[in-house]
Amino acid sequence: MIKKIRPYVYLVPAFLVILCVTLAPILYSIFISFIDLTKNVHKLDNPNLWSFIGFTNYINVLKDSVFWNSLVKTIIFTVVTVGFEFILGLAIALILNEKFRARGLVRGLMLIPWALPTIVNAVLWKWFYDADHGTITGLLAHLGFTDGYSNILSHTTSALIAIMTADIWKNTAFVALILLAALQSLPKDIYEAAKVDGAKPFQRLFSITIPLLAPAILVALIIRTMEAFKAFDIVYIMTGGGPGGGTQLLSFLAYQQSMVFGNFSYGAALAQIMSIFTMIFAVIYIRIFYKDRG
Amino acid sequence: MERTKNQQFFIYLGVIAVMIFTLAPIILLIIATLSSGQDLNSKTLHFLPSHWTLKNFTDIFTAGSNDASVPPFMQALKNSIIVSLSTTVLTLIIAILASYAISRFRFKGQNGLLMSTLGFRMVPEIALLIPLFVIFARFGAINNLSSLILIYTAFNLPFAIWMLQGFFRSIPKSMEESAYLDGVSSLGVLIRFILPISLSGIIATGIFVLLASWDEFMFASIFTSTYDSKTITVAISEFSKRGMVNFGMQITGGLIASLPPIVLALLFQKFIVSGLSEGSEKG
């Protein structure tokens, strides 16, 4: 009997914390998304004022052009940042996998962007893009790309590009670190065999290295996709969602609707919609994990 | 693999490009913290300051002492240290117990439990921010470091359990079995055998939790509105809110906030890289 309950005893603390601070809030959030809280959050405190309105909050979100704009921006942000992070990260991992002097030091320095707090990264890049004294703003003006100092963060397209570059710089390091670790665990003799067969470097890259790296690449891509999909800090600091919703990613929209405008029902419904997207990623992730293990 | 002279040249060219890409923003950040406000606010492109100064650092360490509209940086630093260390210790204790059960015992719902752990790791934070804010505000648990510690612990648990049960599984069971025969309790086996062997895995997991809680901003910004409770990320974000943006303070605060994670990352480089690749293999 004791043997049977023993594992559960060890699980109790974790179970209690996850139940109270994750599971119950998720259910509560689903509940909030089905009741009408317009203009009065305090209705939540009084069960008599709860009016269930079915999927109305969800329909309101799906009918809102602001939501669709935000979804499009989030997809652009996710695809572009993850794409660049993968290509740059793979290139960096391949270079750092070669033999060169001070290799340990160089590999160590790659950890810096990864370890830099996201909020600091956002502050740093906001300063680079500052309209009056930003380094990048100044460089673009001096090199003649822009007509004098321009306010990059106040134009829809350039603001989105600006927040994407900030994200790409920091997270390329993460992808590079994962792929470098995977590269180091690859068997060396395969390459020797390919060399004897006369395979050219690029052929080796596409026909040997990338297929062997596939599990690590997929996991890096999925982790980055999920993170990029819910990016918040960088928007909050660099643009505040502006200009005119140009950088209003989904997490920021849900935050703004609920915490700034007090529209908790809309925010909760939007958060559920985001969770559904994330669940799709999660299913893909778990499938890959199981396929990996055979 | 041996490389020709020509290939060597391109490798070094690549390494230099990688270093410029990685370090240029960091070097600009360090130079900026040593520049005067005048240099930072000038509309000319320059990479070195007209004169070097430590004024940004003296400003930040006295922040809030004579101007109530500026968040006191030292208090925020202290709060962040308390929150991230407490979160790490609490998360590790709870996760070690749970991972021990998952990796060493067979019980009903084991697989489902492991999969739901993975699922919880993927819930977007914003989906929890709304209900948690409503609940914590209702119970008056806002502006309280313990609330942040509890929330961060809950966020980090799924990841920590996932990592640790992987490390525990890789330990052979033979030693424990003889210990059991000698009458050692299951908790004794955990403390005497499993913990010492998996210490490197526990350290790696702890560093990831520490960095994640040090980094957190969205919850901290909503759950703390008094200077007594604000964490370092919130303080940095607010150096810009009051009227004019104070880049000098924001960037200097940012550099100071970056030092602990960067130093930890460099010190425990091996653990982190193996942790990242373990994590990428096991999820």
UniProtKB/TrEMBL annotation, chain A:
It holds the Pfam family BPD_transp_1. SUPFAM superfamilies: MetI-like. It is found in: Cell membrane. Signal peptide: none annotated. It comes from the Bacteria. Keywords: Cell membrane, Membrane, Transmembrane, Transmembrane helix, Transport. Residues 71-285 form the ABC transmembrane type-1 domain. The keyword Membrane applies. This is Carbohydrate ABC transporter permease.
TrEMBL record, chain B:
Belongs to the binding-protein-dependent transport system permease family. It is a multi-pass membrane protein. The chain crosses the membrane at residues 9-34, 81-102, 123-142, 148-168, 189-214, 247-268. SUPFAM superfamilies: MetI-like (SSF161098). InterPro entries: BP-dep_ABC_trans_perm (IPR050901), MetI-like (IPR000515), MetI-like_sf (IPR035906). Residues 77-268 form the ABC transmembrane type-1 domain. It is found in: Cell membrane. Its main location: membrane. Keywords: Cell membrane, Membrane, Transmembrane, Transmembrane helix, Transport. CDD domains: TM_PBP2. PANTHER family: INNER MEMBRANE ABC TRANSPORTER PERMEASE PROTEIN YCJP, MALTOSE TRANSPORT SYSTEM PERMEASE-RELATED. PROSITE patterns: ABC_TM1. This is Carbohydrate ABC transporter permease. It comes from the Bacteria.
